[in-house]
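=== Structure Prediction Worksheet ===
Name of assembly: unnamed complex
Input type: mixed (protein and possibly other molecules)
Chain count: two
Listed entries:
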Amino acid sequence: MTGRARVKARGSCRGQEPHPLEPPQSSSGNHPTVRDSEASISTNLETVKEGVSAGDWNACTLIQRRGKTWNNFLELGIHTREKLAHVKDCKTGSSGAPVKLVTNLFNLGLPREWHLFQYHVTFNPELASKRLRIALLYNHNKFLKKTKVFDGTMLFLSESLEEKVTKLSSETQKGTYIAITITLISELPSSSPVCIQFFNVIFKKILRKLSMYQIGRNFYSPSDPVEIPQHKLSLWPGFAISVSQFENKLMFTANVIHKVLRNETVLEFMSGLYNRKDKSHFIETCEKELLGCVILTRYNNRTYRIDDIDWSVKPTDTFQKRDGTKITYTDYYKQQYDISLTDLNQPMLVSQLKNKQIDSGEVRIAHLVPELCFLTGLSKRVTSDFRLMKDLATETHLNPTRRQQRLSRLADNIQRNTEARFELETWGLQFGCQMSLTGRVVPSEKLLMQDTTCQPMCAADWSRDMRNCKLLEARPLNDWIIVCSYRNEDAAQCLLSCLRRVSSPMGFHIEKPKIIKVQENTAAFVRAIQQHVNPDTQLVMCVLPSTQKDCYDSIKRFLSLDYPIPSQCVLARTLNRHGMMMSIATKIAMQVVCKLGGELWAVEIPLKSLMVVGIDVSKETCTKGYSAVGFVASSNSRITRWFSRCILQNTKTDIADCLKVCMKGALNKWYRYNNCFPSRIIVYRDGVGDGMLQTIVDYEVPQLLSSFRDSNSNYSPKVSVIVVRKTCIPRFFTEMNRTLQNPPLGTVIDSEATRPEWYDFYLISQSAHQGTVTPTYYNVIYDDNGLKPDHMQRLTYKLCHLYYNWPGLIKIPAPCQYAHKLTFLVGQSIHREPSMELADCLFYL
Amino acid sequence: MVDSDVQRVQVKENIKFTPSLSEQRHKFVLDFVRKHKPQKVADLGCANCKLLWRLKYHESIEVLAGLDIDENILTRNIYRLHTGAGDYLDPRERPLTITLYHGSVVEKDPCLLGFDLITCIELIEHLEAKELAQFPEVLFGFFSPTTVIISTPNFEFNPLFSGKTLFRHPDHKFEWDRTQFQSWASDAARNYGYSVEFTGLGEPPPGAEAVGFCTQIGIFMKNKPNAQSLLNEKTVECTHTTVGTVIYPSLKEEKYLRKAVSNEVFSQILKMKRVLLESLKMKNDSDSGDECEFVKPKYNESKNDPFEETPKPFCIENVFYVPLERLFSFPKIKHLCGDLETLKMLIADEVTLSSDGSSVMINIVDEEDCDLSDNDGDDL
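=== Predicted Assembly ===
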């Protein structure tokens, strides 16, 4: 409905790159708001930032503590495959046609018997300053020429010291003698988690050597920016890199990404607003647009989040410096950075600084001058600008060929740059060739319609193939109303006649509705609905005069909370697209069929009595502290009917509890329709955040399992739980007609780029019109169904065909997409749990 | 007499300066730079590179160099001098190259030739007697910069500190009183054709005024300006090793200039377009039949309005024409481009120009209605 929703839906249906752009650092993300003494990118302090070890003995606790590190580290050491007997020896399938694939993975060679030597270093007397500890050790003769990484406590060497415990002494500048004791803790094999993290640090160092510029975890080349001046945007091409252990090899992976920077200071943005908007609402609009934005200061390259705007403070006011002296902002910036502020009436942006010391409770606040702050990331308003996003996509969605060019250039640079090569060699690493592997293309699926089956020409979009086919089941629409404004009456009439024309070939009978004309405002729409709905009303259709969100929200709220009836909103503007009316009407008709509880099509499901469940959790749009848990379960064995529930959950509590409630509801529903419980249940869990895998294995799975026992003590279905990830690092290309292209739909990769400790596979179930397709990553963390990997993969592929809002394949299994859609509606518009009366129909499409 | 005074004062608190003395020293150099606007500045004994970091913000400086004997401290601190995102988003007007060298200050290395200012902040007291003896010849005789700032502790001030050590820092090889420093400095100045002035930082507490400043400073000015030919003859081998070089983007590079100009041009055009659309909308709403005249943006209500004489933007059907002359009258654009032809050349790739090349053309109809492809998914 909103532009944003549209963008989202498009992203997932068409499966373009899900994150072509770097999202702005979220509030929970790390804010490099450290004091300048600590904001170092220097060679030895970096280890602290990267989290190899942060002055902590135990590398594990460290990994846990560093919540920000890449999920790969957090999930190292979770072994789920060993418990799954049927895939212990082999987790690969065999059906389908083999396809040769090129990847974005590069082999990393290490000598046999390679070890990393980890030492713990103590100083006596103890030194509080990490900086001093590092300086002392680095300046010691013993280490001058050695390859080393030291973060103040942990020392990593590529060659062992002669002794297990080495005692040294050193003198500080102040003349104090310090005894240094270096104790060997462990010899780490290359596959150990600490080592993997360590390699990541090494590669970050190498990318810096290639004059790339680090923002967050990624590296960019600011010297070849792509400019989009009409939108005040600059794009920096770059790479997200990582080193990880794949099936049996250590691999370096690089993904081509772009950083979007805005050529606009906060002050410019504000004056833009001031000149545009009705001035009385200026402050309000300004705060609405800016609070929460991440900004980049122009003078010291740090990012801050805008938490507030202080309209009472001006640059000519004074503040207290750390040494206690007072100075005006203007003088401070003049003295410190030789910057003269031009606007002396601008307000101050307020940012809460994150404290490095966890224990100190005080909140530090920074005042920032709008003139000196650049906006970063893309705001809601920017992402809803269709033209802007189109221009951006042209630059950021690289096709496989262009992507490969950038990858080869990076690999080339790493191999040619002497400093980079030296860094690799000192640690014994060898940068190898790009890996290629063989995937399989699983057979395409037939669609089951009423009376016929249909083999779509293209699995990405079968809307043509379905013309003149009768839908599986469509309940007649007898009692319904259309609400529209006086101005849009013609549009509504036109829509109605088109609906009636397209619906009869579908086998969908539409009676004449009651048409209600109202004024163009939210209250009038809601009032009309309140007055005219009755218990027999099957559907309320609204022709909305504008994209105003509150009108849509109020209607949806009323019709899913107070008076639960399926509703369909249509923008009047959409109906003005002449020549498109028939296809628009077809889509609306199909959505209406679903909202009435009908079924559009099916695919063949060989397993009988199988329930599939999709779970998604979304935090983004909810009230702070709450997340929306969407739970959608099939309620028939054809997998065409769904039970949908959404629960708003306090983020502090485990979501496992509400899963239990949902699961019970789904089982009861199944029992009501089938007079038995399903014998197999497969759960697809989406919305798993970085580093949450452990929680899911330890808490959610047991909770789900116990909910079956609670339903009936004798009931123990066979259960599989699969974690679905829409983002992953590997990319796959295939060579066709001498160019690199996206792999065909239905490509499965279950070897080499997978992880030895997991039962995992990649599936490409969506086509990318522009750019490179991101495979969806599936990790089966629990499975007593005992399905062969082949069957698991094919079943997953089948489920990607069943999303009724799009006549084609989508990138994730349909129940997950339904759950996502549901949480989106609840989070964006309804803000409360929708009525259970609607649970049987896909009212949220 | 003086000594007893000093004793009395010392009984009080340990002396602290606010802002700290090192901050004051940096500020002293920065004020000097602001006043004299040197282009090439070197800091000998740059250590943690903090002074260089402060200096890099000064627009006048195009070359910054740092030299230190401790390579480690340089590699660990060079990050301070790296470019940031802001340097690319809003590049400097003039180029800036920062280089850190590892080496001794008494080596005659050509990389430090031709500088406008060389600073030696708290450096000389770390030099061994032999090095100190060679230093004036290398600094004034060989490097021969236009100006030099040397600071060093004033030994007379030391009794005011409660510390028991002779010198303020264990690595100090000596600390001079005012007479010693001034005679050394005056000798050096005389020998190499410089004039020198003395000042200091860190006022002594009341009652102890006689000891002078805590830090003493000598400012050396070359009597004759640099003779370029002389420099070229000094072809001496390089002994310093380069620890790192950081090159800042600047508007002197065409790609950054092009970006800056096109951003500014687009931003002005979009502002004008918005004003136009608003006035059109008002006209439609009121239906008063007034002539559609371009409304001048309010923020330009200066007395000497440069827009008075320049051609106004105009509209033909759905195309909005902004004359280049009009754009050029914006001070920032004028400043960036210098002349109209440059403006035209710089933006040619980014915009559509009218057939005679005098105006930028922009379509004012929103193309929104063309997006037919995105109606999958939600409620339509």
